[in-house]
Amino acid sequence: MAPKAKRTNENIRADKVQVIAESWEQLGIMPLSDAINKASALDMDIVEIGMQDGIVLTKMMDYGKFLFKQQKSQNKSHSKKTEVKTIKLTYKIGDHDLEIRKNQAIKFGIAGHPLKIILSLRGRENHYEALAMDKVNEFVTSLAEVYKADGKVMKAGNNFSILLHIKK
After folding, report:
1. 32-41: which pairs have CB atoms within 8 A and are 24 or more residues apart?
2. Which residues pair with 156 in a beta bridge?
């Protein structure tokens, strides 16, 4: 529910209130009973939204619908967001550096993030496409206990990439 409940209809402690329609149109200052009658005729509630110059500001709205939307947006903000993490490799990366990247990838997997592996070739390195493909495949197989491959290694220009998802 909402962290702070608002006063509605008969729970409002004022004799006269300034009423704002659902479309934010000013309806003016009127006795609380008239405002409640107008709202109930439209199948709505009068909700206290603030105070201005000693007069209580109220708005006509469907309070149940308002609470539902507020609760729904609050639930969305608490949901876990997964972000695609990226690890970049080179075709001549050392064993120790590869091990560090593997450990980082495992941490990402434990945290629940999908992983994208990218290996870029530059200039003369483009002659070593086979080595680059082998390096990426080797790295993917080393992560087989945490991740599963989402297809094959793709080559786009001078970049090799693959998307990995967490094993369940």
Report:
1. 35/60, 36/9, 36/10, 39/9
2. 159
The span from the CA of 57 to the CA of 59, in Å, is 7
Question: What is the Cα–Cα distance from 104 to 69, expressed in whole angstroms?
Answer: 39
> Which residues make Cβ contacts (< 8 Å) with residue 84, sequence separation at least 6?
113, 114, 115, 116, 163
Report the distance separating Cα 115 and Cα 123, nearest Å: 26
* pLDDT tens profile 67-121: 888 888 877 766 667 789 999 998 888 999 999 999 999 999 998 899 999 999 9
Total count of residues recorded for the chain = 168
| Residue 22 pLDDT | 87
What mean pLDDT, rounded, does the chain reach? 87
Q: For residue 53, what is the DSSP state?
A: T
Which of 44, 67, 58 minimizes the C-alpha distance to 13? 58
Quote the CA–CA distance of 109 and 111 in Å, as a whole number. 5
- Write down the CATH number for the domain with range 85-166: 3.30.110.10
The CATH superfamily of 9-78 is: Translation initiation factor 3 (IF-3), N-terminal domain (3.10.20.80)
């998307």: which residue's tokens? Answer: 163
Q: Is 106 helix (H, G, I), strand (E, B) or coil?
A: helix
